[in-house]
Structures are given as structure tokens and as C-alpha cells.
Design goal:
By secondary structure, this protein is an alpha+beta fold. About 30% of the residues lie in helices and about 25% in strands.
């Protein structure tokens, strides 16, 4: 057996050590990445986070549309959604800084409606944070991606994928 020493008290005048024998690894304590992922999803679910079976981009965008409609109490026409999605949410010329700026500071978009009116569409409710919807998905492969670049767990806020979590075995 290997003994090591653990510091109990350390000061300028003295140091108190204790003998410590490490507990051998027990295979019963082994947790696979899949089990760790399921446990995290269960914990998030217990806190009120909905787990969605989204694995494809088309499902992710459809969920995003539903969340934006619910948050803004609006029903988008297809042309309104396309304008909002492509001009604001998924603007191809936006980099990480621009996307971050949208969520933190420029979180409203003046959408020109098909009837000629304008409606401010928000992507997050900063006044009443309880209106924001938090969801979790797992094993999502970004559009055009491969199995190797899938995300273990992704947390969505109002349908927007904001946090990607890569889990590792213990």
C-alpha cells in the first residue's frame, strides 16, 4: 500500500501532517460519459429545464421560432420569420463578438411586419427573467457537421444555443 501525507495545519511556526492511505478505485464508482450526461440532464430537469429530443438543425430552428413567438406574443409569417432569422439571429457576417453584443446589449430587433407595421422583437426578456425559457438538448450535431463535432449537452435560452458542454469521464 502507498501512504501519503496530508497537511492538516500549516502555519509559519509548525506544520501538522497526517498519514493518509488512498482509497483504491472501485469499478462500481465508474461512470461513463453517457451516464454523466444523463445525470446532468436529470439534474437540470429537476430544476425545471425541459429536455428536448432535438438532433438536427431544422428541429433547432423550428424550436427557436416557437420560443421567439411565445416570448414576443406574436405569430410570424414565414417571410417575417425569414427576415428576422437571416437578418438578425443568423446573420452570416456576424462573428462571436457581434453575436455576444446582440444578446448582451442589442437584444431587440425592429421587425418590419408584412402589414407595414413595426414590432420590436426581443431575444431575451431582461425585465422579467422568469419569462425566458431554458431548455436542454444533447448529442446535437451542428448543421453540416459530423459525429466527431457533436455537442454532449447544449443549453438553450429562448431557443438560442448559448452553452455547449463537453463532458468527460470522471
Amino acid at each position: 500500500k502507498t501512504s501519503t501525507y496530508q497537511v492538516l495545519v500549516d502555519s509559519d511556526d509548525a506544520c501538522v501532517l497526517s498519514s493518509y492511505e488512498p482509497v483504491p478505485k472501485d469499478e462500481a464508482n465508474y461512470q461513463s460519459e453517457a451516464a454523466l450526461e444523463n445525470r446532468l440532464i436529470h439534474i437540470l430537469g429537476a430544476q425545471g429545464t425541459a429536455h428536448l429530443p432535438i438532433t438536427r438543425e431544422v428541429e433547432l430552428v423550428a424550436n427557436l421560432r416557437r420560443c421567439m413567438e411565445e416570448l414576443n406574443d406574436v405569430s410570424f409569417t414565414d417571410s417575417e420569420w425569414d427576415a428576422f432569422f437571416h437578418e438578425f439571429l443568423a446573420n452570416g457576417s456576424d462573428g462571436v463578438l457581434e453575436k455576444t453584443e446582440k444578446f448582451q446589449r442589442n437584444w431587440r430587433y425592429p421587425l418590419k411586419r408584412d402589414d407595414g407595421s413595426t414590432k420590436n422583437i426581443k431575444i431575451v426578456d431582461k425585465d422579467n427573467i422568469n419569462r425566458n425559457k431554458v431548455q436542454v438538448i444533447n448529442q446535437y450535431v451542428p448543421g453540416g457537421g459530423t459525429y466527431e463535432n457533436r455537442y454532449d449537452v447544449t443549453i438553450l435560452v429562448n431557443g438560442l444555443p448559448l452553452v455547449h458542454i463537453e463532458l468527460k469521464k470522471r
